Amino acid sequence: MRLMPPPLIVQDGGEGIFGASGETPEDSRLEVYYATNRLPIGPRDNRIYTIAPDRALHFGTAGLRVGNEGTTWAQLYEWSTGGPTSDRPFINLERMREEASQEPDAPLDPETADWLGRIDGTLARRPGSDVIVYVHGANTTVERAAGQAAQLWHFTGQNAVVVLFAWPTAENFLRYPSDIETAFGGAPHLADLIGLLATHTRARKVDVFTYSAGGTVGSAALGELGRERPGIAARLGNVYHAAPDADFRDFVDDLAAYAPRAGSVTAAINLNDSALRLAQVMNRASRAGRPDLRELSETQTRTLLGAVSRGELDVVQVSPETIPTLSRTSHTFWYDDPWVSGDVLVTLLFGLPPGARMLDAREAPGGAAYFTFAPDFADRIPTLRRHLLAEFAPRPAAEAP
């Protein structure tokens, strides 16, 4: 996993975001919280997580390093705020330290409470912050998933608290169908994680960011919360699905259950996405990130169009015709393309509607609204950045309760 190109919002003028948390790192090391329903092996202070699912949910912290041993924060800062270059450093997973585990439906144990307390302590230094839960895609190693979550946290300027949810994948493209099966098995664990964060931390809201087949995990989990735990669903903040590899019909049904309670829901799609084209063939159904409206029933169509018209769902079309550096068939656009990754950050950190994020509104045949990046999007960034930097002004730490 290489460090992704700097999001446009932090390039050449957005450096203030990296100092806004009031904390200056000592080196190029990053740390994120994690939860996983993968089966663990090895000592707890240096866990290895297998591809097999486990009944329990395990909690801990993942330590990573950007670049070689001895890489300084100044070097990482330069990589993170300059323009994109072909020479990007690797992100190395140094260790995963498991701190607690919890069986389904078991009462909260002291170790899990301590882990949640650490998250709460981090939030206390960032008053008014959300927790962002990152859900990775299929065919993904723990190392790669942790790297994606860590750089998401890093490019927020460490102004957010990011929790990786690492669900079991076979880590082999040829076993993709089994990944989709385990995705559904991971959904109840993700719902439980969201419930713990919403109940036992001071997070203003719990944001959920899914990528690819993580959209199957996330959609099913959020749908479960909306139907069975509406009080927890009401604590949802910004939900962002990037290239969601989820059955389109299931996605719409789940959306109806949780979207009215969430702060915002965004689906970023590329209609030329080659990975989702193949996934559609293998699943014999279109994917939410490359949808076919003809598959929906009349009721589902009304549900989808109603969610769009009420502003409960924002559809962002990621189009290579207007984004100069985007590969036409890109599936990895959320971290490969600086325009899109910047929009992800602004959505998760601020919950701004698409127009305020400088996206243009369009209308699909039939009247449904969607949003897209205009060719002059880069020229609009300085105006957006000035507004965001004012919001990023360091705030005094909150007193612990």
UniProtKB/TrEMBL annotation:
SUPFAM superfamilies: alpha/beta-Hydrolases (SSF53474). This is Alpha/beta hydrolase. GO terms for molecular function: hydrolase activity. The keyword Hydrolase applies. It holds the Pfam family DUF900. It comes from the Bacteria. The lineage of its organism: Bacteria, Pseudomonadati, Pseudomonadota, Alphaproteobacteria, Rhodobacterales. The keyword Zinc-finger does not apply. Keywords: Hydrolase. InterPro entries: AB_hydrolase_fold, DUF900_hydrolase.
